[in-house]
Amino acid sequence: MVSTYCNECLPGAIERLHASKLATLGIQVMSSNTRNLLFRILIGCSLGAAALTLIPWSAALVTNDLGYKSLCPFAPWSSLSLAGFAALLAVTKSYLASQKE
Questions:
Q1: Average of pLDDT values for 7-36?
Q2: Cα separation of 82 and 88, whole Å?
C-alpha cells in the first residue's frame, strides 16, 4: 500500500523523470508563458479562420448552406467546427494552467 505522502509527491517525481528523459534527448520543456502564447495564437487563428469562412465572395462556384456564395462553400459548418476547435483549445489551456498551480 502506498502512503499518502508518496501519492502527493508522485506527480512531481514523474514530471522530473520525464524532464530528465527529455533533457537527455536535447529537448527542452516548454515554459508556461510560451505554452500560453502558443495557445492564444492558435485560438486567434481558429477564430479568424471561422470568421473568414463566412465572408461573401462572388467568384465562388458553389453556394453555401446559408444560401450565398462565400469564401468557404462549407459554411456555416466549417465556421462552427473551427469555433469548436478554438473552444477546445481554450478549455485545454485553462486545464493545463490549473494543473500547474
A1: 69
A2: 10
